[in-house]
Amino acid sequence: MSNFKELIKGLWKENPVFVLFLGSCPTLAVTGNAVNGLGMGLATTFVLVCSNVVISLIAGIVPRKIRIAVYILVIAAFVTVVDMLMQAYAPESLNNALGIFIQLIVVNCIVLGRAEAFASKNNAVKSFFDGLGMGLGFTFALVTLGAIREFLKSGSLFEVKLIPCWTTDFLLPSSAPGAFIILGVLLAGMNYLNLRKAVKAGKVYIPPRGLDCRNCRICHWPSGEEK
């Protein structure tokens, strides 16, 4: 049951994008359509699972002062494997779309964060399920955002035209501002669902830092006040 909890926590309760706000750069950059989001998510999931398992096995013998450098080397090795596999077997259009973001998985805060915060402190089995859960949660977020952007842009989904009469692309969803707006709406929706769930359970919902007024000063701008 414990391993199952480690698996599902990344899908919703501790989703890397929608809750922990990690990996925002690839989330916004490569989700022009659902296919790109799926490809990036699966590549990151592979690296997360493999690096988590290896790091959990070697954490006890790695000197603390050089642990981050060693973790990065382990992650970089699996990123290289993913990159070579994608160049060999993935469609050229997907490789061109993801581009350098595959190599940048090495410094993705989700991967390194799980290595330091979880894999280095737990056994290989738990680390496997943690990496798989976080990877699937990241993939879910990227596919969701990519699918919405793709549909709003051209009425298609996974590069399949759902509305044939939609002949003119709507460019805002495919742009960086459009990605920020759509991600903001998704974050607000998830926050609302969590709030309703807490109210029904008779609990007080405390939003993640950044989703409430604790870090916001916009209300004080007109009067020039700062607190």
Quote the distance from N terminus to C terminus: 45 Å
Order of strands across the widest beta sheet? 1-2
Structural class: mainly alpha
Helix content: 55-70%
Q: What value does the average pLDDT take?
A: 87
Radius of gyration: 19 Å
Total domain count: 1
Shape: globular
Count the E strands: 2
Low-pLDDT runs: none
How would you describe the overall organization of this protein?
The chain has helices spanning 2-8, 24-29, 34-58, 67-89, 92-98, 109-117, 124-154, 176-200; strands spanning 156-157, 160-161. The chain is mainly alpha-helical and 227 residues long. A two-stranded antiparallel ribbon has the order 1-2. The mean pLDDT is 87.
Q: What is the element layout, followed by pairings?
A:
Blueprint (H helix, E strand, L loop, with lengths): L1 H7 L15 H6 L4 H25 L8 H23 L2 H7 L10 H9 L6 H31 L1 E2 L2 E2 L14 H25 L27
Antiparallel strand pairs: 1-2
Helix pairs in contact: 1-7, 3-4, 3-6, 3-7, 4-6
Task: Give the gist of this structure.
The protein is mostly helical and 227 residues long. The protein is built from eight helices and two strands; from the N terminus they run αααααααββα. It is 59% helix and 2% strand.
Features:
single chain; 227 residues; two-stranded antiparallel ribbon; 2 strands; globular
